[in-house]
Amino acid sequence: MIEIITAKPKHIPILLSFWEALSSHLPESVFPSNQAAQKERLQSLAEHVTSSSASVALLAISSVRNKRKGEQTKVGSRNLDEAVIGCIAGHIHDRPEFDTSPLGILYNLWVSAEFRRQGVGRTLVLALENQLREKGAKALQVAWRHSERENISSEAAAAFWQRLGYLHYESIAGKV
Fold this sequence. Notes:
GO terms for molecular function: acyltransferase activity, transferring groups other than amino-acyl groups. The protein is α+β, with helices and mostly antiparallel strands. It has helices at 12-25, 35-49, 63-68, 80-83, 120-134, 154-163; strands at 2-6, 55-62, 84-93, 103-111, 139-142.
């Protein structure tokens, strides 16, 4: 059974561990960054999404993970990090030049490897979409990159998002 909860400031260490895992599995960015600066940005982002009314981060909690370990975890207990199997974040972005503003931007979707292809990512996305719509989003947007280390191609990521109704509309390139 999966439970989706809204991340609070006390969950920042959990978010950081998932986002660091996500970052470590992505290809090098066009925009170089040292590890300390990356950690600082992730910390700032986690603080923002857990405290801003225009942002939200969600955690997927599984009772299955703890049953495998012979434990029972309640949300708010100190063993919560062992039960978290995925996360996603998003925020409202005002783009007055678009008729569909404000936009809900989704990012940092990550599901633990042992729980992939079981509907956890879909459940997180749908829950976040609902929360962003409640915050006023008229449209939703997401970007993705492939992960060679996790054997997740950009085609597989595109197929995941397309099954959820997202349409590819642009490619982004960078240069330093």
